[in-house]
């Protein structure tokens, strides 16, 4: 039964890859702020190693980090993961010393930017060994992988009241990453044990939805509107090179940017007037990663440099004359990652990781925009364990991970700044850290 499932899974993946190749020629650079994988990581083992996974890439999350590494599995894999995140921030008004509360143009309280940031994510991953499926005769080792991450707030993916650029909001936490993240990749071993390549696609999905506003008492329609937000497909490519005796691996990967620009939604009122409702704007930068892993049987270390091209992001709303014609001016960043692992025995590996992550957001002092982000140092710790439950004929791989993100405090000076939706802006200070933890279970055939 398991074999039939993975044969079916392989056929589905082939169909999706063909579809992606066809669609990528027709979808332009149209239709995301940072996604969950770039904020926390994709996969418990990758998180445990500080994200330094491009040259490791030996489980389903290679689909996201480096699809060339999928060929290292030489088996089929089915994984389930859960991640809980707890950003603990304070955004304080310098004038009052209390939590910052913003107001819209009508004088109504709009939001506290530090509330509602806790999230839960559920991830499913699978890898299929095409050479064992008897679908077609293959001369090279080929593995196909799939990964999907869902937030508990996925039903909120269509933001009817997204943050305008002049409202203080975090670009990496809370609503901004309540998206469905998908990755699909294929790894092909070109030279046995030496060189493999990988290709694939990543996708982020918004739900197409219309909305009708009704009077709660009479039930009469007050206003109605609709939006059409498409599914975006963008390519991933990777290379894995194992020189010499095999104790060293060099990995390189590239992921294209993802950009969703949902137009301002026009809602027609019964009296003939039009109300403009904001939809959120989402972006994930183009990325280049280069990593090297040294593996000495009982101990391994992975080192990686990751370049993110945030300069490709320009919030279309910030440039619109409806707002204020101000460029976003995000900057490119270079993230440094390192991960180590100690194999205590054949069944247990202890892992630790570190990542230095730069913020792409320029100083918001003196500007009308209020994007919140900060430089951070990410520390992680994980344990990998192989267990053999009596009810299963195959071993079960379990990974537990803890992550701590230490964020730099900073102050934003808004003296004399007048916004559009937050009219009388005031100076504020941002401080806090992020705590997260997760667990995964993987079956190998």
Describe the structure.
With 445 residues, the protein is mainly β. The chain has one domain (2-444): Outer membrane protein transport protein (OMPP1/FadL/TodX) (Porin), CATH 2.40.160.60. Helices cover 9% and strands 46% of the residues. The chain has five helices and 25 strands. Strands 1-4-5-7-8-11-12-17-18-19-20-22-23-25 form a 14-stranded antiparallel β-barrel. It is elongated, with a radius of gyration of 23 Å. Residues 8-32, 155-161, 207-217, 221-227, 264-268 and 274-279 have low confidence and may be disordered.
Mean pLDDT: 79
Structural class category: mainly beta
Give the termini distance in whole angstroms: 12 Å
- What is the general shape? elongated
Whole-number tally of structural domains: 1
Spans where pLDDT lies below 50 across 5 or more residues: 8-32, 155-161, 207-217, 221-227, 264-268, 274-279
The first-level CATH class name = Mainly Beta
Query: What's the arrangement of strands in the largest beta sheet?
Result: 1-4-5-7-8-11-12-17-18-19-20-22-23-25
CATH topology: Porin
């Amino acid at each position: 039964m398991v074999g039939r499932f993975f044969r079916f899974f392989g056929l589905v993946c082939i169909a999706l890859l063909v579809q992606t190749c066809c669609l990528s020629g027709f979808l332009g650079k149209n239709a995301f702020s940072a996604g969950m994988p770039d904020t926390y990581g994709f996969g418990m083992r990758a998180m445990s190693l500080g994200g330094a996974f491009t040259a490791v890439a030996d489980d389903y999350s290679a689909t996201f980090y480096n699809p060339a590494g999928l060929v290292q599995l030489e088996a089929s894999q089915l994984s389930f993961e859960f991640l809980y995140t707890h950003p603990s921030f304070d955004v304080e008004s310098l004038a009052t010393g209390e939590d910052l509360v913003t107001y819209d143009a009508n004088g109504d309280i709009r939001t506290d930017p530090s509330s509602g940031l806790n999230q839960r994510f559920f991830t499913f991953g699978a890898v299929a060994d095409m050479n064992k499926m008897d679908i077609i005769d293959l001369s090279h080792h080929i593995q196909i992988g799939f990964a999907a991450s869902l937030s508990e707030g996925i039903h909120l993916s269509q933001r009817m009241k997204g943050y305008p650029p002049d409202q203080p909001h975090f670009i990496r936490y809370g609503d901004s990453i309540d998206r469905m993240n998908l990755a699909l990749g294929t790894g092909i071993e070109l030279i046995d044990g030496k060189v493999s390549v990988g290709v694939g696609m990543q996708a982020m999905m918004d739900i197409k939805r219309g909305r009708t506003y009704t009077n709660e008492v009479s039930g009469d329609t007050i206003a109605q509107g609709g939006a059409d937000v498409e599914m975006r497909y963008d390519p991933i490519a990777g290379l894995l090179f194992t020189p010499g005796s095999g104790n060293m691996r060099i990995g390189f990967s590239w992921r294209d940017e993802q950009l969703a620009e949902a137009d301002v939604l026009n809602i027609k009122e019964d009296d003939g007037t039009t109300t403009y409702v904001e939809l959120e704007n989402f972006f994930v930068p183009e990325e280049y990663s280069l990593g090297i892993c040294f593996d000495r049987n009982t101990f391994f270390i992975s080192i990686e440099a990751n370049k993110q091209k945030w300069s490709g992001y320009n919030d279309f709303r910030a440039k619109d004359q409806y707002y204020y014609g101000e460029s976003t001016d995000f900057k490119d960043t270079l993230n440094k990652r390192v991960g180590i692992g100690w194999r205590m025995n054949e069944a247990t590996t202890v892992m630790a990781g570190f990542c230095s992550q730069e913020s792409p957001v320029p100083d918001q002092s003196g500007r009308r925009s209020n994007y919140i982000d900060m430089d951070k140092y990410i520390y992680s710790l994980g344990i990998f364990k192989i267990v053999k439950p009596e009810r299963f004929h195959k071993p079960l791989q379990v990974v537990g991970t803890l992550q701590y993100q230490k964020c730099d405090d900073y102050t934003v000076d808004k003296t004399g700044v007048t916004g559009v939706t937050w009219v009388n802006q005031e100076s504020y200070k941002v401080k806090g850290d992020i705590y997260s933890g997760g667990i995964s279970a993987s079956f190998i055939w």
